Amino acid sequence: MAFTNEQLERYSRHIILKEVGAKGQKKLLNAKVLIIGAGGLGAPVAMYLAAAGIGTIGIADADEVDLSNLQRQIIHATKDVGKPKVESAKETMEAMNPDVTVKTYHTFVTSENIMDIIKDYDFIIDGTDNFPAKFLINDACVMAKKPFSHAGIIRFQGQLMTYVPGEGPCYRCVFKNPPPKDAVPTCKQAGVIGAMGGVIGSLQAMEAIKYILGKGDLLTGYLLTYDALKMEFRKIKLPSNTHNCAVCGDHPTITELIDYEQAECDGVHL
After folding, report:
1. What are the distances in angstroms from CA 6 to CA 3, 53, 139, 163?
2. Residue 172: is its pLDDT beyond 80?
3. CA distance to 8, 13, 68, 117, 269, per residue, from 266 (Å)
4. What is the reported pTM?
């Protein structure tokens, strides 16, 4: 494909990078990334991936925009209150970059539909806010051999890790099972500073871009944590022995997807 003059100008700051160049920008334009969750994490991810020229971006979310979302979910505006989040996100992304094709899934992602939703995408972003969804995304991506970025935020804290098939532990290797109901406060109960979504979501977008370009070191085998009050990042090496994992191990005991009971906005093991 040949770039138009408008594309050469739009992506000029990418193209002059030796790690990207014209070849890398074409990879981005040909890539397909799915974002599950159009909230505090998914909002900045969607905006940066659209700006970067990811050619096809899927976005899945069953909710409508609520006034309380706007403190952190920057892809939505006051005029969007009551609108499906996927439609609000699509409008913002297409206004930002007409090169991008946005596919929307206004539905809850469940064991019944997730494999069909993720099948055509190169990389998956977990922007959800609850443990049941995170374990479902992990297990589906492992079974479908799809790379994905996990993240979670609460209060002034956040974390992320990246799974690439055959290259490191999955989310379940580290956390095994969802915590008991009510064991971890939700962000509705505990709160979350709005900019946390921007910090951690931007890092997720960066992981997706690096994976597509084939450049740099991904967070495979590591959990990156961030404490905003201390302005402190920690990169924690995860166990490398994944043989006994219930889903990605040598003899998996989880061979079917599980819909755990939902609890809103509790996506961080800290």
Report:
1. 8, 12, 41, 35
2. yes
3. 42, 37, 16, 23, 8
4. 0.94
